[in-house]
Write a structure and sequence with these properties.
29% strand; alpha+beta; Alpha-Beta Plaits; two-stranded antiparallel sheet
Length: 63
């Protein structure tokens, strides 16, 4: 299992994680204009979201 963390202090809300996650872990929060971790249990630890995040706001750790 993997634990995903988004640092909302540095997240620019560009939706790269939402659009690139092959497991569709993220949803877009329209009200707050930011990604949310909707299906963390589906994360396979590929770290695509980490790689595409331009601000380095996402971490993925195996737990």
């Amino acid at each position: 299992m993997f634990e995903i963390t988004i640092n909302y202090d540095t997240c620019q809300g560009d939706e790269e994680c939402v659009g690139n996650c092959p497991s569709e872990v993220y949803d877009w929060d329209e009200e707050n204009q930011r990604p949310i971790i909707a299906r963390q249990e589906d994360c396979v630890g590929c770290e695509t979201c980490v790689e595409v995040c331009p601000t380095g706001s996402i971490t993925v750790e195996e737990v």
